[in-house]
Amino acid sequence: MEEIPVYLFSGFMDSGKTTLIRQTLLEENFGDGAKTLLIVCEDGDEEYDEAELKQANTKLLMIENEEDFTETLLKNVNLQYLPDQVFIEYNGTWGMDKILESSLPEGWVIVQSLATVDAGTFEMYLNNMRTMIMEQLFQADVVIFNRCDDATPKGKFRRAIKAVNRPAQIVYERADGTLDDREEELPFDISQDIIEITDADYAIWYMDAQENYKKYDGKKIEFTGLVYNPDKMKKGIMVPGRFAMTCCIEDVTFLGFKCKYPDSKTIPHKSWIHLVAEIHVEFAKEYKGKGPVLYPIRIEKAEKPEDELVYFS
Fold first, then answer.
1. Residue 72: how many CA atoms within 13 Å on its side-chain side?
2. Per-residue model confidence (pLDDT) at position 1
3. Is the pLDDT of residue 81 over 90?
């Protein structure tokens, strides 16, 4: 059976989903006139024009109640409309598992998931409704921050997304629709002879070093870390790092880089150290490619920090 591509648009109400769909489907003529089924699950401020939809060969289906969004309904509308492609504007207050775990009609395949975020309200949602808003974003292929301005903390927003959705492509748009290409600021100085990474900045540094490892090649780094070095670990290898909270206390993960140290077996597993090391960019099977590998210059015993966790904000 021929595949029917499904494009999923998620995000809170008034985050710009309808505007993005209108631009994509109506203004850019996405699909070049293909028969499109547009399923809308919430009634926002922006509305669709019936004449525009007709011109774009698009049929609109409104689903206002979450309990009505069922596998049976989707199968029935598939038979009724026989679409070539499907756009779904998902409700920002519905659980994402409702659609991600549903059995879609035969042939329907979610080929791209896009999430929109209002940059002006995202920080407030992070502080008060973090789990709820992150659920809308954690599996999106593309996260679009719209309505950005010069005060938008792009680095903070990017780290919040990457903490729960590392593969996501992140786009920043200004209110006029142009791309915001300002560089993101880091809270530490990489021009130092030895880059000092505080507990507060460790998760931020880890994410940047993981994604932009080339700029750290040959740099010296200093931080306090917990050593992963069980008996099964190969001699000469250990992994210093920190446990980070990504979304909530239930979502804690260890963030560390491969460290080559001939006397690694002298460093006890789960011990705390203060490390000064030089970073070399090398191929490592653990990374499945190139990445930062630490070469210790100085290792000292360290006290366990008052807060063992590090954070992305």
1. 2
2. 66
3. yes
CA separation for the pair 32, 13 (Å, rounded): 28
pLDDT in tens, 251-304: 788 999 999 999 999 999 999 999 999 999 999 999 999 999 999 999 999 999
183-241 confidence digits (pLDDT tens): 777 888 999 999 999 998 999 899 899 989 999 999 999 999 999 999 999 999 999 99
CA dist 29 and 23 (Å) reads 8
Tell me how far apart the alpha carbons of residues 74 and 91 are, in angstroms, rounded to a whole number: 16
pLDDT of residue 271: 97
